[in-house]
Design goal:
heterodimer, A: four-stranded mixed sheet, 4 strands, B: about 400 residues, alpha+beta
């Protein structure tokens, strides 16, 4: 659970946004006539707000549209002008939350929420050469009702979600690698054992054991590499499908699946090692068996 | 043991390394499938049992919000709670107000505080010490005010039950003063159902929290939980509809709706579970199909002999089929154990998710779902032997015998 202060601006923005959305259309539809100043009066100066692209799309808002904001449901609130539409950053922490976001001027939001001179947090920059730790210590020494944290510590705390997801993905990855490894070992072992008669014939022709083992290992390595490349191709196509699906579901530019050179190298290397190991083990077993036994005699 | 089973077992024993690898492969696939089924169903069931811990099937929150998902509060709460309590279809109503209170001169500056009515609260269960007083037990007169805290509060504050401390609200950072404060005694330790284990939390009588927060909060709550007298879904939905119609300033959410909304947020895990579950089914199928096919190819001569001495096509078919079944069964038995162990491990990882209630589990053993998924893998593995079994039964006897004899 986030701390209450951290949530305040975010939640307030959501309440404001939700209050704004249903009222925006009727107001916008009134056009300039309904909102024109009476003769001799100063035209009302609407405060500008920025809204996220998702909200703009869902409610048909665009720069210049008018909306009404209130701090609580049911209140009249303020009429505001949409000054800008912004794209939300691709933040995995928010991807599953279907909230809208708006940005207001600080004093405007404080007024809407009746918070006078309050903020949730503020950032402090220290001059070059001043140790951040000592600045934090000095602030906390005099702090009353608040606490200073280093940005790096905040980043570590807020990235905990991603670290948990990363650990989970690694664990799932490990299980799938084990499953794939066993599958690969099985297949290579079988494909070599299926050629008992060929190997027996080679042995009877006088081909050396080492030559047979090397040829089988090379064959296994080639099969593993080709399989890895095909697998990487399937993985790449799958990642495109996965990204297209989830980006549409969550309406985010976030990438959910990514095939990096490191992942490709890991997969290829793993299958190569397993392939060579399985090929060598199977070949060693077969060349040690008398050729006539391999032929079933 | 029938001759067919004996033959199938003998075939599997003939290549022990191959059989062990195949069983291991199916076991890993079965474990992954079981884990994914537990993940897909576990979140839902875990969340449901969490919500129904104390029997409250409905959550009443400020209009348009989810419980404790915003700072919004319900004004005029007394009238709303009284109206709910007056409804004969509602058995109990538990109002709560969540806020952050300052802890002057403590190890950490503030604590998440729940204002509750002790006699109807459904947020915690007392594990040690004594409970806070209810509204009719003279909470206001109690000096110092008894509070219930969780284990994390005691750990982080270095306090123990019986200690007193001051909680405050209305901080003026410039003047270094608080508008209101109250001395509380840590009377009891509770296990809070909906608060993450890593969050220190304190429960105080609702009215006292309102008083601390000032005049603006004297009639406010963040949430009310309501219990329908009849527990069936139709009655709960009827009560929910009545609240929605009679109380325009609140949103009433049933357990089912709450589960749906949480599922929406955690849909990523469900979809991941579906994809990986499908992959593990595919791996199991391919593994059995490959093994049985190669095994049949190796034994063409043997099968031809069986056919030549009078074994019916159906007999050969059933025997090869049995091999696939035995391989799958052995793998699934191992997979069940492996799956439970890995589920425990994966659950331990995901339970570190910040902000999740301590009692929430991602992987939950659901016998019905687990057996269904493993049965699916067993059927899939057994069916994987269908094509090779058919090919084995259709072997041309004379040609196969000649090929086997000549080599």
């Amino acid at each position: 659970m986030e701390s209450i202060p951290v949530r305040l601006i975010r939640m307030a923005a959501v309440v404001v946004a939700l209050a704004a959305a249903p009222l925006s259309a009727p107001l916008a539809a009134q056009g300039d006539t309904a909102l024109s100043p009476t003769y001799g009066r100063t035209p009302p100066a609407y405060r500008g707000i920025a809204i996220d692209a998702r909200m703009a799309e869902d409610f048909g808002l665009r720069p210049g549209s008018l909306a009404r904001l209130s701090g609580k449901p049911g209140e009249t609130g303020d009429t505001v002008r949409i000054a800008a539409v912004f794209e939300r950053k691709a933040d995995p922490a928010e991807v599953a939350r279907r909230e809208y976001r708006i940005r207001t001027h600080l004093d405007h939001l404080q007024g809407l929420l009746g918070l006078d001179d309050r903020v949730d947090r503020f950032a402090v920059g220290v001059p070059d050469g001043v140790p951040v730790d000592s600045a934090v210590a000095r602030i906390n020494h005099v702090a009353f009702g608040f606490r200073a944290h280093k940005s790096a510590d905040v980043a570590v705390q807020s990235s905990r979600t991603f670290r948990v997801v990363e650990r989970f993905h690694r664990a799932i990855g490990l299980i799938t690698v084990v499953a794939s490894a066993v599958f690969l070992l099985c297949l290579l072992l079988l494909s070599v054992e299926e050629r008992r008669r060929d190997i027996a014939a080679l042995r009877l022709m006088g081909i050396a054991q080492g030559t047979i083992i090397r040829s089988i290992v090379i064959e296994a390595a080639v099969v593993s590499v080709i399989g890895s490349v095909i697998g990487a191709g399937i993985g790449w196509v799958s990642s495109l499908i996965v990204n297209a699906h989830f980006q549409q579901v969550y309406r985010t530019p976030l990438l959910f699946a990514l095939l990096t050179p490191e992942i490709f190298a890991f997969a290829t290397l793993t299958s190569l090692v397993l392939g060579i190991g399985a090929g060598a083990a199977a070949a060693w077993r077969l060349v040690r068996t008398p050729p006539l036994t391999l032929l079933g005699r | 043991m029938s001759m067919r089973t004996t033959l199938a077992l003998a075939t599997l024993r003939r290549h022990p390394a191959r059989t062990v690898l195949a069983v291991l492969g199916i076991a890993v696939a079965a474990a992954l499938l079981l884990d994914m089924v537990m993940l897909a169903t576990g979140m839902r069931e875990s969340f449901r049992s969490l919500l129904l811990t104390r029997g409250y099937q409905l959550r009443v929150s400020p209009k348009g919000t989810l419980p404790f998902d915003s700072e919004a509060t319900i004004d005029g709460a007394t009238a709303i709670v009284e109206a709910l309590r007056a409804n004969p279809d509602i058995k109990a109503v538990s109002p709560s107000l969540g806020t952050t209170l300052a802890l002057p001169s403590q190890a950490f500056p503030s604590v998440f505080t729940l204002g509750l009515e002790a006699d109807v609260q459904g947020d915690y269960v007392l594990e040690a010490g004594r409970d806070m007083p209810g509204p009719r037990n003279g909470a206001a007169a109690a000096i110092p005010l008894p509070a219930v805290v969780n284990r994390m509060f005691l750990v982080r504050s270095g306090r123990k039950l019986g200690d007193t401390l001051t909680v405050a609200a209305g901080i003026d950072a410039q003047l270094r003063t608080t508008a209101r404060s109250r001395v509380v005694v840590l009377a009891g330790e509770g296990r809070f159902f909906y608060v993450p284990a890593e969050t220190p939390v304190m429960a105080l009588p609702l009215q006292e929290v309102r008083t601390l927060l000032g005049a603006e909060y004297r009639d406010r709550i963040s949430l009310a939980m309501a219990e329908s007298r009849k527990g069936d879904s139709v009655s709960v939905e009827a009560v929910r509809s009545w609240i929605a119609a009679s109380q325009p300033r609140v949103t009433a959410i049933s357990t089912e709706t709450a589960i749906r909304q949480v599922e929406e947020r955690l849909s990523y895990f469900r979809q991941l579970a579906f994809v990986l579950g499908a992959i593990s089914l595919g791996i199991g199928f391919l593994l059995v199909a490959t093994l049985v096919t190669l095994s049949v190819n190796e034994r063409r001569g043997e099968i031809a002999v069986l056919r030549a001495i009078g074994t019916q096509k159906g007999g050969v078919l059933r025997q090869v089929f049995l091999e696939g079944f035995l391989l799958s069964s052995a793998g699934i038995a191992g997979g069940l154990l492996l799956g439970l162990v890995t589920a425990r491990w994966l659950n331990g990882i995901l339970r570190d998710f910040p902000g999740l209630p301590a009692a929430f589990d991602f992987f939950l053993w659901s016998p019905e779902a687990a057996w269904q998924s493993l049965a699916l893998l067993l059927i899939s593995g057994t069916l994987a032997g269908l094509l090779p079994a058919w090919r084995a039964a259709s072997i041309p006897i004379v040609r196969s015998l000649r090929e086997d004899a000549v080599g």
